[in-house]
Amino acid sequence: ERSWRSFLAEKKSFSDRTSALSNRELEVFTLIGQGKGSKAIGDELGIATRTVDAHRAHIKEKLHLADGKELLRDAVRWVEANNHQSD
Question: How far is CA 1 from CA 5, 6, 8, 75, in A?
């Protein structure tokens, strides 16, 4: 039996889920969705690759993603949705 709370949590929109991210995490998430790796993201943001990797770990935790593949999939969807909204 699923609880009502878990049902509602699953129904949250993508935007609601990403609202849990800090501004920097959202920047990293967006750059991941643009196909950039940790080193390229670090270079672009002026931060260490290890810091980018820490942000990636926090994003996966906050969005309840199992691995890097899910992170990339959701980040690409995020970028596509936001590019479409601004058209």
Answer: 12, 10, 14, 31
Quote the DSSP letter at residue 19: T
Burial of 86 (0-12, 13-18, 19+ CB in 10 A): exposed
Residues 34-45 have pLDDT tens digits of 999 999 999 999
Q: What DSSP designation does 81 have?
A: H
Q: What is the 3-state secondary structure (H, E, C) of 43-79?
A: HHHCCCHHHHHHHHHHHHHHCCCCCHHHHHHHHHHHH
Question: What local confidence, expressed as pLDDT, does residue 84 receive?
Answer: 61
Burial letters 38-71, b for 16+ CB under 10 A, else e = beebbeeeebeeebbeebbebbbebbebeeeeeb
- 9: DSSP letter: H
Total length of the chain: 87
